[in-house]
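User: I'm curious whether this sequence folds into something compact or stays loose and floppy. Could you predict its structure so I can see for myself?
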Amino acid sequence: MSAARTVTGTGESDEAGASWSLVLPARSAAAPEARRAARRFVRRLAPRVVDRVAQDIDLVVTELVTNAVRHARGATCTLILDARPDAVEVTVVDEDPTPPRPHAPDFSGCLGGFGWPMVRRLARQVTVALIPDGKAVCALVPR
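Assistant: Here's the prediction. I'll summarize afterward.
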């Protein structure tokens, strides 16, 4: 495991309000590791998250972390998960202040273009906040 990897929070809760954060090295293995962490977080929530919502969270986590690794070009990114009574907030912080820019989907498979619109469809709200050392992209996925 990379020295940049740190985990805080337990993800455990008997009510909505659990939180979890994970600092990941910005490399291709970050998305699968973030996905595994998100699945553990979701499985521990009470009340239970239905399968469709768990899959939506999985997709949003994967896409936001992949985008941070692919486009931000920083050394790390941070996944933050916060459970609310009616939603799970998925936030990915990276070291690049450039906000995500949608572009036409590339059906040849080389340039992508599908993920950002998918995140915007799955989330009730998506925000991008500029922070001193980059940006935080937050997607609120309804429970």
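Summary: Confidence is low (pLDDT under 50) at residues 1-7, 10-16. The first strand starts at residue 6 and ends at 8.
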